[in-house]
Specification:
Length: 508
C-alpha cells in the first residue's frame, strides 16, 4: 500500500529543525530504518573505536572540571535542558514515532518522561544528602559525603530510544558525572536529536566543560569499547538479558560499576474481587500498548477460575477489536513491530505455545497496515493449559499468555517462577490479598503494583528489577546513589586518640 507521508523528507525536516548536522546522518555508513514503513530514512555516520576512545578521554577531562562545579549549578544545566525539551517535544516525539514506531501519544509521552526526570534532577541537585553518624569515641564525629563518580557510559535499547538515556543523564549530570551514550543501532536518529537539544541547553548555560555529554554510534562492538574502557566508572546498560550476560561479567572483570536494566516476563493476577472494567483496560494497555515492546509489557495473566469465564471472553473481544495500523497516518492503538526478526520471534513463540495446547486469538500479520517491509501484527492472546515453554521466556512482541489459578499462593508462586523479575500487578479489592502480594512472601519483582498494569512507571520511583532483569535501579527515589561514590569520614576534634573497639597501641 502507498503511504501518504514521505518519511525520508519528514525525518530530514525534523533533524534539521532540531539542529542535527547533516554530516551525522545524510551519507554515513549505517542505514537507518523506520518500522512504520520499513523504509530507509537516513544513513548515519558511525563512530570508530579510536574516536570512541578519544571521546571517553574527553569525558574524563570534563569530569575533572565538572565535579568541582557546585551541584545546584549543575542542576541549572539540567533545568535548561528540560526547557529545551519542552520546546522540542512535538518534534522529538514525532521522531520517536518514526524511528521506534510508537503511537503519537506514546512518542510524546516518552519526551514528557525526559522532561519529568529533568525536573526531578533539578530538585535533587540541592538534595544530595549524606548521613551524620554517632561515633563511639568522645570528641569524634562521623558523617558520609557523596562525591561525583566519573564517566558514566549509557547503553540503551531501541524501545525507549531517548527516555532511558535521560533517566541516566539528568541524574548523572547533577551528580557531577559526564555521560557517553551508545544508543541502539536501531534508533540512532532520536539519539542524535536528543544530543542536539542538549547542546542548546549547554550553549545557554555557558561555561560547562567540553565533553559533558557525547554520543557514539554503532552496533555492539562500539558498546564494548565503552564497557572495557578503564576511564568509564559506571555503565548503565539497558537491553536484553543476553546483552547483560555479556556486559555484566566484562564490567565485573575490571571492577567497574554496573546498572543492568534487562528483560522482563511480567505477570498480572486477577482476583475474584477485582474491578473487572478497570482490569480490562489495564490489561489491554499493559499487554498491547507499544505493540508489546516494553520491558514492562504484561506477558502472563493469571485469572481466578471463578471469574475466568466472565472476564477472558471480554478480553478476547478487546483483542479482536483493537486497531492496528500506521501510527503517523491512522489513530491505531497498536503500531508496528520493530523489524522482521521481532515478527519471526513472535510467530515462533505462538507455534510453540500451540504445540503445548495453547488456544490463540490474533497473532497474524496485518498486511494492509503497511508495505511488505513493515511488520504489523494483531496482538495475540493465548489461553494456556499451564505455564510452560515460551511462557517462561520473554518474547519481545505482543503475546499475552492467559492461565487459570485456584488460590493466591499458587498464583504468586507461578508468577515468581520465571527467571526475570521486573514488573508485576495484582487486581483485587481485597485488602488482604493486596497486602500479601506486596509482602515479603509476595511478588519478587522490582515493581509490584495494585490495581494498575505492569507498565507505565513514573520517574519518581526507582526503576529496575531482580534476578535476570539485572538488579539495577535508575531514575527516581535514591537511585542517584549509584552515580556517586560514598566516603565515610571520621573527624577527631579532641586532644586524645582513642582507638575504636577499645584497642590500645601506646608507643613511647
Ligand atoms: P539488545 O540487548 O539487543 O540491545 C540493547 C543495547 O545493547 C543496544 O544498544 C546494543 O547495541 C547493545 N549491546 C548488545 N550487546 C552488547 C555487548 N555485548 N556489549 C555492549 N553493548 C551491547 O536489546 P533491544 O532489542 O534493543 O531491546 C529489547 C530488550 O531490552 C528487551 O529484552 C527488553 O525487555 C529490554 N529492555 C529492558 C529495559 C529495562 O529497563 N529493564 C528497558 C527497555 C528494554
Amino acid at each position: 500500500m502507498k503511504n501518504k507521508i514521505d518519511l525520508k523528507s519528514e525525518t530530514a525536516r525534523i533533524l534539521d529543525k532540531l539542529g542535527v548536522p547533516e554530516s551525522a546522518w545524510r551519507d554515513g555508513d549505517m542505514a537507518s530504518f523506520s518500522p512504520v514503513t520499513g523504509e530507509q530514512t537516513a544513513k548515519v555516520r558511525t563512530t570508530s573505536p579510536e574516536e570512541a576512545r578519544r571521546m571517553i578521554e574527553a569525558a574524563h577531562e570534563a569530569f575533572k572540571a565538572w565535579r568541582l562545579v557546585p551541584a545546584p549549578r549543575r542542576g541549572e544545566l539540567v533545568r535548561l535542558f528540560g526547557e529545551e525539551l519542552r520546546a522540542a517535544k512535538e518534534d522529538l516525539g514525532r521522531l520517536v514515532t518514526i524511528e521506534a514506531g510508537k503511537i503519537p501519544s506514546e512518542g510524546l509521552g516518552e519526551v514528557q518522561e525526559m522532561i519529568d526526570i529533568c525536573d526531578f534532577a533539578v530538585g535533587l541537585s540541592r538534595q544530595l544528602y549524606g548521613l551524620t553518624i554517632a561515633s563511639e569515641r568522645p570528641g569524634h564525629r562521623m558523617m558520609e559525603t557523596w562525591h561525583p563518580l566519573g564517566v558514566v557510559g549509557v547503553i540503551s535499547a531501541f524501545n525507549f530510544p531517548v527516555a532511558v538515556w535521560s533517566w541516566n543523564t539528568a541524574i548523572a549530570l547533577v551528580c557531577g558525572d559526564p555521560v557517553v551514550w551508545k544508543p541502539s543501532e536501531k534508533t540512532p536518529l532520536t539519539a542524535l536529536a536528543a544530543q542536539a537539544i542538549f547542546e542548546r541547553a549547554l550553549k545557554r548555560f555557558g561555561d560547562a566543560p567540553a565533553g559533558l555529554s557525547q554520543v557514539i554510534i554503532g552496533d555492539r562492538t562500539i558498546g564494548e569499547v565503552l564497557v572495557d574502557h578503564p576511564k568509564v566508572a559506571l555503565v548503565s546498560a539497558t537491553g536484553s538479558t543476553r546483552m547483560g550476560r555479556e556486559v555484566g561479567p566484562r564490567l565485573a572483570k575490571r571492577f567497574a560499576r554496573s546498572i543492568l536494566e534487562l528483560g522482563g516476563n511480567n505477570a498480572g493476577i486477577v482476583c475474584p474481587s477485582a474491578d473487572l472494567d478497570m482490569t480490562l483496560r489495564a490489561v489491554a494497555f499493559g499487554a498491547m500498548g507499544t505493540a508489546g515492546q516494553r520491558c514492562t509489557t504484561l506477558r502472563r495473566l493469571f485469572v481466578h477460575e471463578s471469574i475466568y469465564e466472565s472476564f477472558v471472553p471480554r478480553l478476547i473481544r478487546a483483542y479482536e477489536n483493537v486497531t492496528v495500523g500506521n501510527p503517523l497516518e491512522t489513530k491505531a492503538l497498536v503500531g508496528p513491530l520493530i523489524d522482521k526478526a521481532a515478527f519471526e520471534g513472535m510467530q515462533k513463540a505462538i507455534e510453540e505455545a500451540k504445540a503445548l495446547g495453547g488456544k490463540v486469538t490474533g497473532g497474524q500479520r496485518v498486511t494492509e497496515a503497511g508495505p511488505e517491509t513493515a511488520y504489523y501484527v494483531r496482538p495475540a492472546l493465548v489461553e494456556m493449559p499451564s505455564q510452560a515453554g515460551p511462557v517462561l521466556e520473554e518474547t519481545f512482541a505482543p503475546i499475552l499468555y492467559v492461565m487459570k489459578y485456584r488460590d493466591l499462593e499458587e498464583a504468586i508462586e507461578l508468577q515468581n517462577a520465571v527467571k526475570a523479575g521486573l514488573s508485576s500487578s495484582i487486581f483485587t479489592l481485597n485488602m488482604r490479598e493486596a497486602e500479601i502480594f506486596l509482602s515479603a512472601a509476595g511478588s519478587d519483582c522490582g515493581i509490584a503494583n495494585v490495581n494498575i498494569g505492569t507498565s507505565g512507571a513514573e520517574i519518581g520511583g526507582a526503576f529496575g528489577g531482580e534476578k535476570e532483569t539485572g538488579g539495577g535501579r535508575e531514575s527516581g527515589s535514591d537511585a542517584w546513589k549509584g552515580y556517586m561514590r560514598r566516603a565515610t569520614n571520621t573527624i577527631n576534634y579532641s586532644t586524645q586518640l582513642p582507638l575504636a573497639q577499645g584497642v590500645t597501641f601506646d608507643i613511647e
